[in-house]
Amino acid sequence: MPDYKAPLRDIKFVMSELLDSEQHYASLEGAEDATPDMVDAIIGEGAKFCEQVLSPLNQVGDQEGCTWSEDGVKTPTGFKEAYQQYVEGGWPSMAADVEYGGQGLPNSVNLVMSEMVGTANWAWGMYPGLSHGAINTLESHGTEEQKQTYLTKLISGEWTGTMCLTEAHCGSDLGTLRSKAEPNSDGSYSITGTKIFISAGDHDMAENIVHIVLARLPDAPKGTKGISLFIVPKYLPGEDGSAGEKNAVSCGSIEHKMGIHGNATCVMNFDGAKGWLIGPENKGLNCMFTFMNVARLGTAIQGLSHAELGFQGSLDYARERLAMRALSGPKNPEGSADPIIVHPDVRRMLLTQKSIAEGARALIYMAAQQSDILHQGKTEEERQAADDMMGFLTPIAKAFLTEMGHESANLGVQVFGGHGYISEWGMEQNVRDARIGMIYEGTTGIQALDLLGRKVLMTQGESLKGFTKLVHVFCKENADNEQMKEFIEPLQALNKEWGEITMTIGKNAMKNRDEVGAASFDYLMYSGYAVFAYLWARMAKVALDKMAEGTEEEAFYNAKVETARFYFKRLLPRSRGHVAMLEAGADSLMSLPEDQFAF
Amino acid sequence: MPDYKAPLRDIKFVMSELLDSEQHYASLEGAEDATPDMVDAIIGEGAKFCEQVLSPLNQVGDQEGCTWSEDGVKTPTGFKEAYQQYVEGGWPSMAADVEYGGQGLPNSVNLVMSEMVGTANWAWGMYPGLSHGAINTLESHGTEEQKQTYLTKLISGEWTGTMCLTEAHCGSDLGTLRSKAEPNSDGSYSITGTKIFISAGDHDMAENIVHIVLARLPDAPKGTKGISLFIVPKYLPGEDGSAGEKNAVSCGSIEHKMGIHGNATCVMNFDGAKGWLIGPENKGLNCMFTFMNVARLGTAIQGLSHAELGFQGSLDYARERLAMRALSGPKNPEGSADPIIVHPDVRRMLLTQKSIAEGARALIYMAAQQSDILHQGKTEEERQAADDMMGFLTPIAKAFLTEMGHESANLGVQVFGGHGYISEWGMEQNVRDARIGMIYEGTTGIQALDLLGRKVLMTQGESLKGFTKLVHVFCKENADNEQMKEFIEPLQALNKEWGEITMTIGKNAMKNRDEVGAASFDYLMYSGYAVFAYLWARMAKVALDKMAEGTEEEAFYNAKVETARFYFKRLLPRSRGHVAMLEAGADSLMSLPEDQFAF
């Protein structure tokens, strides 16, 4: 497993040089503490913790996995101690509400920490990561008493949280879920049902676990309109607020799975467990949707994390491993062969990883700023605009980045050749860990429908226009910039085409609703490449400007420009295939009768 | 793990309807036994063995893996017994030389069996599969005594073989290998060195293992011109020909790896082991190249196998799993939801898998017929033409099919959603097993250089012309066929473009040799899509003709035509991206200085 090194220079580039975080934080309500020095210091401290404490446990977690017994789930060696340090460092409370013990920093600072935690050790990071769902639910919909009882403990990190949605027969389609909540005379509810795929559903890292459970009240309407949310703690809080009596909730088993072995994926049995309604009756899904974008952005980070880790591992290897001579003549004549980084095809793989990782960082941080504004923007107008932008960017970030992260992780294996397939090197673990990203928190297919159906077409394209306008303005600003021409011209063409294909799909969908599902995946991927093109063009602009001004970091900025060039010449052309595919229409998918798929 | 069902109808379609195997076998020297009835009967028997014996052991092999001890490697439960049945069934000898106990059937019949074995249980199939390398080496370069001693035992399956090439510091670049062979006074050699990644290097399935080892004679020239081949048996053959005294070769350890757990990947230590030279001194690599294409075709099958297994698994699931309603209205109104096969995006995934699996079968069988002609063609001219065609098709089949098979296996996971990530269902194992295909027996990058550099450019494009001429003739024959227009028009354009981009790369490469490496991957993928386009157009033609003639299997042929349409509209457009990328040239990969890849 490669030793993770937090890419602090690039983090700084994206935060402050590309996205002007200083100005951004100054524009927020109550983000006075987020001064550049403070943010730098926090990220620097976080980096040390991730590099020194979490990264060494990444392979341990994979190899040991979690262990189930009737007494509960045991996490891999070192996980519990690392969590203790994490809590003592105050990391869980960073972006939480000051009123309940949080430090009130903007969410975007927290997401940088999530990136570093996730890249160092994704499976470990899921334990505190899952708490965010419970924290968001309580912040948005909890009563004051619920907040005092649960939110404070989640924010301090003493307790962790889960989201209990999926049942064996339903994941994407929550409308058919069956778990029941029967009212008790004391105002609480008895929750009964079995939930599966509950990440961090049980473990030994914190003294209590707060489950947010989707269940149906008696006589609730069928489908998605009859689902309510309940708080179901593993241990019922005692009078003094500490974890008391064991509740009737238990982990029945843990899954054997492809990767993220260090994180327990639990079957959770609720056997008349005591729970409390949170939010209005039958509005559970609506309540969850209020922070769905933020939760999905958390998963989008997984794409960035595995892309970055894959890149770091394969770059080190490509510089050290000797094999064959450069086609253009020996580059390491005194050695037995040249390092493989001299070979164009190895560079193709490394540059693909690099442009994915750095592009992903730009996209995540851009969306993270929108989530800051959504929560701390000074005007309703700003907040609404940020919500719209988040709505548009989130499915792209979640699906496109996890797909690209998986590709990058696979390239990491490929650069290592046969050694990539061997567990010891950690590159194959990175692929196995990455693979879940395209599935949970809404599969790529679900995100694609969300983007095209719910976000773009349901707003008559307004959601897309919010973004293409940014692109248009940027292109216009740089129309006369000779150095930027190689980026602006293709970007402008793409931006125009993006609107046109959206119109076409919209028209076709009026005749046949299957046209939406038939175009959605390729539309999402196309949009991902387009968003990356905009971000890479902007990054090139920043770098070219710095070089024009004169800088001591010429090499760093040159690398940005070269990577942008690589992106435009070597990855963006994939959009040509996606355009053709999404124009192929529904017939090419629907005309084969179901019974003719195999004989 | 899905229960494997041999796709006998499709196998028959490709063999006899697409590739006219009856006429093909009749045209070969000494293939009189390969009558249609005989071939059908063999494949039918083989299918039963694969479905009933090997398929149930696929998941067992993954979960148990192999166990190392000082006494040797123990294979998973049932593997040894299955091998016994395989030997008793006469399967190892099917395509081998009659003179040494073989049945003399054409290689293409054997490859159909290899497909079924590999799809049922790839890890198991590698044990007999690895023998082919040793068999080919002995058939081509062994002395009569060596053949009598080793070849007969390998053909009967009593013994198995390995190829010992890789050392820790060298895989693709064999020129730097260090294992030594010192001559003994009795004409034998003492072999010393450590080989890694030796598949089936040790096991308990056969009474002896024949290693073909690459090593250097004293004072051998440096590099690839100083490598010789040696036969090194695990047990030295006694006077009566049976396995006798233990040789000084042992398995030092086995690798923990991503997949193919049922197959032992061994570190093999040769400590002055007794061996015998095979073929001329210092010509080891040349000797191996004589059957490299056939060996690589064996690995190409892995792409087909994982594509097929992924497709079978996800099709069953997509028909049974209920989630959400079709966008165009309920299709299963009495159920709680519709089966997911109604959703366009699920169909996109299934059709991608289907068109990959069936296209791969056509490509493998086409190449297999060439390998038949190479060995049993009646004229030197025929044999030479087949050798050229094999040379062109092999890197495409090996690299393109393993890449596509991996994609298809991953789609299998995706169709299953969260369940795909859980080991129990077997879909994630299919991905892990598939992943090695793009690496061993020459990585995708190595195949791409072989195709573009060695095969196409070194023959001044003649190698490509051999194929594009076939395409041209086919297009001309169907120029007036209205029904075929949708396939012929894009195929013709592609065929022209293929020649043009080859010319362009060739010109650029004269100025800068890095242009070859910079274009090679995209050229290979482009070529793969082009070859598939030709094969899918031909398959559509066969099906349309059958329907025009009138048939009781209308549904089967209709599915072929629809799948061909899907291929042209939904997969072939990827070639647009690859053209643009390979035209991007070497600069986009080489201009970033090595020390600027990260900061």
TrEMBL record, chains A, B:
Molecular function terms from GO: flavin adenine dinucleotide binding; oxidoreductase activity, acting on the CH-CH group of donors
Reactions performed catalytically: 3-(methylsulfanyl)propanoyl-CoA + oxidized [electron-transfer flavoprotein] + H(+) = 3-(methylsulfanyl)acryloyl-CoA + reduced [electron-transfer flavoprotein]
Coiled coil regions, renumbered to chain: none
Domain called Acyl-CoA dehydrogenase/oxidase C-terminal: residue spans: 282-450
Cofactor(s) this protein requires: FAD
Pfam families reported in the protein's UniProt record: Acyl-CoA_dh_1 (PF00441), Acyl-CoA_dh_C (PF12806), Acyl-CoA_dh_M (PF02770), Acyl-CoA_dh_N (PF02771)
Domain Acyl-CoA oxidase/dehydrogenase middle: start-end pairs: 163-271
Keyword set, alphabetical order: FAD, Flavoprotein, Oxidoreductase
Limits of the Acetyl-CoA dehydrogenase-like C-terminal domain: 467-593
Domain Acyl-CoA dehydrogenase/oxidase N-terminal: 68-158
Documented EC number(s): 1.3.99.41
Keyword Glycosyltransferase: no
Enzyme class: oxidoreductase
Keyword Cell cycle: no
Family annotation (PANTHER family): ACYL-COA DEHYDROGENASE, BROAD-SPECIFICITY LINEAR ACYL-COA DEHYDROGENASE FADE5
Family that this chain belongs to: Belongs to the acyl-CoA dehydrogenase family.
Function: Involved in the assimilation of dimethylsulphoniopropionate (DMSP), an important compound in the fixation of carbon in marine phytoplankton, by mediating the conversion of 3-(methylthio)propanoyl-CoA (MMPA-CoA) to 3-(methylthio)acryloyl-CoA (MTA-CoA).
Protein name: 3-methylmercaptopropionyl-CoA dehydrogenase
